Amino acid sequence: MRSHAKAARIRPFCYDSPFMTRNILVTSALPYANGSIHIGHLVEYIQTDIWVRFQKMRGHVCHYVCADDTHGTAIMLRAEREGITPQQLIDKTHGEHLRDFTGFHIAFDNYYSTNSEENRALSQDIYRTLRDKGLIEIRGIEQLYDPDKQLFLADRFIKGECPKCHAQDQYGDAQMNRSFCHAPVRIQKSRRTSNRESNSSYPCEVGLHRTRWK
User: Is the entire prediction scored with pTM above 0.70?
Assistant: First the structure.
């Protein structure tokens, strides 16, 4: 027997309703503060900028925010190579990035930096909250140490002999010839590299670093 009953039509919920204004927060991958903006960066930012402008034209509240990523060994290495402080490099690069983005009419609502008091305060608040809940403990780890500058070294500051295949002049965090990783403290005949003079280096030693782990 053929049924003449009509199935109920369910209209799906739609964000594009003319009666609804969306609040949209948009960002892009943060450019690193150790180099210039290149065409690969611009492809993403221009596409995102077009989408953000489209949403604003439709009446939505859309905020496009981004910032320079200012943390990491590469910044320290380049600053040392140029004979300036990391902060000076960060400030110079931020100006260059903002100039280039503006030149391509990319309209950020806020273009900032991860090296900011706000970011520092939020990071400290997250850490203290975890610490107060007993989710962070202190352990000792071995890390290579520069006795002259009195600082523990990031992996990319270290070169030496690979502990597995004995290849020379390998970085402290990876073997470039065969593409595998190892602990920096295992590298043999380790030395701290100086990037201002490509052939300049001096020995470093293993020290005990008190660090915090979850």
Answer: no
